[in-house]
Structure formats: structure tokens, C-alpha cells
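C-alpha cells as discussed.
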């Protein structure tokens, strides 16, 4: 590592870089090579996109320790479940980003209207942000005199962007009745912000319950580690004896039922629906997009 800094040719390489615009201060035989860094970055991106496949090495390690194929088979079964859970988490994060983008949109358009710009120009000049490529249809409708409320409702069908129903309703009222669009957008932004703050406060209050559920779910793993440390060989008993297999199946069923029941209790306390139902359960906006 010190050789490229002190070896021969260092001053020549620096002169080429500074005065001739060519050459490189990195020697030809540098380590690690460029292809290694590129493949490492690709592998990291692939691992982040396929995090559910981490079940395989974990199951393989447990299978080697217990000398049984059952943990590996369980890991294969767990892959689609983990993939579904990760997809739900990813959809939730994207929905939260879209909700924040809708709030910023309302504030930006209201500010442009207060500054004296026309509604179509103000809406077309707002960047899409996290609202996706569907926002191009809204900008085109605002720029060329199309049906802006209908385009807004089309984008509002995505999770997290339901607040655009309120924007569409305000736009329709402002165009048909001449009401103030800026004040309506500010009310929509205020309702969405209040709902988001309420949800964040409720999540912080339920953080203790979620942590308790996670600790209870990890207790069997801690028990197995303690038994292995004491020399009781719990994996051998669970995976190679009939009584152990029965206890393993029964314990797994009870563990899954407990996690599902605890999650249901937390979701009920948080006011979250069992399935994402679009606008249902959103206290800030009604189904027609009117601000409550």
C-alpha cells in the first residue's frame, strides 16, 4: 500500500494529471482491482434486493450443527413468507414517502398560488418527487388544459397518495365555483400532517409492546443457546428423537400463533386495518376527498 505513494514515477503521474489532463495517480497494478469493486457493489445490490435468501445460510448452519435436513427445509419454506413480509415493509415505506410528497405538493402549489401564479402553471411546475411516473399525466393535464381532477384521482389510487383525492376535490370546487384553491390545499396539507403526526405518536407509544413481542419470540432461540452451552445438546434431542420432533412442531405452532396474536393486538391498538383498504381508516380525508 505504501509503494504507490513512495515508489518511482509518482511525480510523473502527478504531473500528467495536473498539466496534461491525462494519466492517473493510481498504478496499473493497484489492489483491489477495479473489477473486484464493481462485482462487490453488484453483489451488495443483489443481496439487498434478495434479503429473504439469507434464510438459506441460517438454515444451513443450523442443519450442520444439528446434523439434520429439517432446518434447511424449514428455511426453504420460510423464504416466501419472509419475502412477503419484506414486500409489505417496502410498500409501507413507499406509501409513507408518497404521503410526504403529497403534503409537500400541497404546500408548494399553495405557495405558488399565493405568489400570483395560475393554478395550471403552479401544478405543472411542481416536481413529481416520490409520486412516480404517473405524475407526468397530471402535469400534462395542468399544462394543456386537460381533466386535472381525473388525473389526480388516477395517481391517488397508489398506496400513500390518497390525499390527492382531496387535492382533486379542491381543484374541482375551485374551477367550478371559484373558491380559493390555495386555502383548500393548505387545509388538505394540514389534515395529512396531523394524521401523520398522530400515527407517529401512536407508533412511539406502541414501541414498547413491539419490543416485548420480539423478545418473547427470541426466547426459544436463547433457550437453545443456553442448552448448548450447558452441554445438553438440545438440537440433537429436537431433531433426532420422536419426543423432540413433537415438541418442536408443537412449539413452532404455538410460537407462530403467539406472534400472530401479538401482531393482531398491536395492529388493533394502532388502528391499522387487516388489509390495506385505500382510503379507509384515514381520519384526515373522507372517501370523496373532502377535508374533515
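Sequence:
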Amino acid at each position: 500500500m505504501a509503494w504507490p505513494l513512495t515508489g518511482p514515477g509518482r511525480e510523473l503521474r502527478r504531473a500528467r494529471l495536473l498539466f496534461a489532463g491525462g494519466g492517473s495517480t493510481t498504478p496499473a497494478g493497484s489492489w483491489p482491482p477495479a473489477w473486484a469493486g464493481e462485482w462487490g457493489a453488484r453483489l451488495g445490490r443483489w443481496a439487498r434486493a434478495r434479503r429473504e435468501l439469507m434464510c438459506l445460510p441460517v438454515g444451513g448452519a443450523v442443519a450442520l450443527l444439528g446434523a439434520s435436513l429439517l432446518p434447511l427445509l424449514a428455511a426453504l419454506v420460510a423464504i416466501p413468507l419472509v419475502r412477503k413480509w419484506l414486500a409489505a415493509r417496502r410498500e409501507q415505506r413507499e406509501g409513507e414517502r408518497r404521503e410526504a410528497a403529497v403534503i409537500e405538493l400541497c404546500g408548494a402549489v399553495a405557495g405558488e398560488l399565493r405568489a400570483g401564479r395560475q393554478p395550471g402553471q403552479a401544478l405543472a411546475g411542481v416536481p413529481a418527487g416520490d409520486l412516480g411516473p404517473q405524475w407526468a399525466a397530471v402535469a400534462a393535464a395542468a399544462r394543456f388544459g386537460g381533466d386535472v381532477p381525473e388525473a389526480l384521482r388516477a395517481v391517488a389510487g397508489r398506496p400513500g397518495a390518497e390525499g390527492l383525492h382531496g387535492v382533486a376535490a379542491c381543484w374541482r370546487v375551485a374551477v367550478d365555483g371559484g373558491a380559493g384553491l390555495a386555502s383548500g390545499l393548505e387545509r388538505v396539507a394540514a389534515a395529512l400532517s396531523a394524521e401523520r403526526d398522530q400515527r407517529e405518536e401512536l407508533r412511539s407509544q406502541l414501541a414498547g409492546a413491539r419490543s416485548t413481542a420480539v423478545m418473547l419470540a427470541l426466547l426459544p432461540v436463547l433457550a437453545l443457546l443456553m442448552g448448548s452451552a450447558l452441554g445438553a445438546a438440545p438440537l440433537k434431542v429436537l431433531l433426532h428423537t420422536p419426543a423432540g420432533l413433537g415438541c418442536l412442531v408443537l412449539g413452532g405452532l404455538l410460537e407462530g400463533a403467539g406472534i400472530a396474536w401479538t401482531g393482531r393486538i398491536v395492529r388493533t391498538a394502532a388502528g391499522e386495518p387487516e388489509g390495506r383498504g385505500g382510503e379507509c381508516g384515514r381520519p384526515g380525508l373522507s372517501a370523496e376527498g373532502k377535508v374533515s
